[in-house]
Amino acid sequence: MKYCILFLSAAFGTLTAADFPQADISNGLVKARLYLPDAQNGYYRATRFDWSGVIASLEYQGHNFFGQWFDKYDPKIHDAIMGPVEEFLTPNRTGLGYDDVKPGENFVKIGVGAIRKPDEPRFRQFGTYDIADFGTWSISKHPDYVAFIQELTDTAGYAYVYRKTVRLTSGKPQLVLEHSLKNTGRKTIETNVYEHNFYMLDNQPAGPDYVVHFPFELSINGDLRGLAELRGKDFAYLKELEKGQTAAGDLLGFGGTAKDYDIRVENRKAGIGVRQVGDQPVTRMYFWSIRTTVCPEAYISMKIEPGKEFTWRIAYDFYTLNP
Fold first, then answer.
1. Helix, strand or coil for residue 66?
2. Spatial separation of the C-alpha atoms in residues 157 and 51, rounded to whole Å
3. Domain assignment of residue 199, yes or no
4. Where are the beta strands (DSSP E) in 63-144?
């Protein structure tokens, strides 16, 4: 397999991909490279996304599905990250406890840690905050999977044990994300989590060669501005996006069962596709795309009482298209 080496220039110097803690996994069909959580040297050290399971590259039959979709890299930029990464937000789109703590006190971002609240008028989803407590990370590397555990002790009444395993299924071109979140604190954890998939099928630009299939009839809350349109159950591009253009909006039409968490992203020119299937009902389906990446974002919701645990699973099947 050939990996594209990233040469990354930032204020702290020039780095290559080999400088970051990482792990390579393979099941003989699919090969993937993961960047691992590390408070000092990790590839991603911002406060928006979960630090575990950053997939720098994934290859199947000579095709690549993820990669660097952004121009500028810095570990503290909120979205300088790759692969099917996750963000946890409360129903009012903040961190856990943010509205209850004072400036100088700490709130929680799951998968990141305890975050120090500054004196500010409102929560900044795309900002990077100071991290007061990274929690304790345990990482177990194996030939075909990597298991992550983060434990965070009491922060404003919240505490948890978060487990995530990134696994390649034996004998299949499939990647599975297995999650569990156990509430070990005093307060109920009520949160949403979504996958910001950052698909890059062979680095093809977002345009008419892409189509995204859903299992339900689509409508949208948003203006696609002539860049794309909905065709029944499909999201289709009308033109190749130029740099600076965005196609985005809330997709509507899904029901209350897990059967609607079934998304296919295909690119005719590359001749490949990926099917993403979750085992929980979708509570929001947002679509975001710029020239370099196509991102259907499926949200799920959870309410976990103290002492209880919530589990969820997302599978990605990679395939080639018939000529």
1. coil
2. 22
3. yes
4. 63-64, 85-89, 106-109, 113-116, 131-133, 136-141
Which one, of 50, 55, 47, lies nearest residue 20 by Cα? 55
**What's the distance, CA 171 to chain centroid?**
25
Task: Name the residue with tokens 């990274």.
Answer: 134
d(CA 297, CA 128): 21
pLDDT, mean of residues 5-25: 63
Segment 86-95, tens digit of pLDDT = 999 999 999 9
Question: How far apart are the C-alpha atoms of 24 and 35, rounded to whole Å?
Answer: 9
User: 281: how many CB neighbours lie within 10 A of its CB?
Assistant: 17
The residue segments making up the domain with residue 304 are: 1-203+293-323
Q: Which helix H or strand E contains 182, and what residues bound it?
A: strand 174-183
pLDDT at 65: 98
φ/ψ of 17, rounded to 5, equals -60, -30
CB neighbours of residue 170 within 10 Å: 10
Note if the pTM is more than 0.85.
Answer: yes
Tokens representing 24?
Answer: 């390579």
pLDDT of residue 15: 54
Whether the per-residue pLDDT at 317 is higher than 70: the answer is: yes
- Total tally of structural domains belonging to the chain: 1
Q: What percent of the chain has pLDDT over 90?
A: 93
Q: With a cut of 50, say whether residue 8 has pLDDT above it.
A: no
283: tokens are 């509570």
**pLDDT surpassing 60 at residue 2:** no
Burial bucket for residue 23 (CB in 10 Å: 0-12, 13-18, 19+): middle
In a domain, 169, yes or no: yes
Tens-place pLDDT, residues 22-35: 999 999 999 999 99
Within-domain flag for 313: yes
Decide if 185 is inside a domain.
Answer: yes
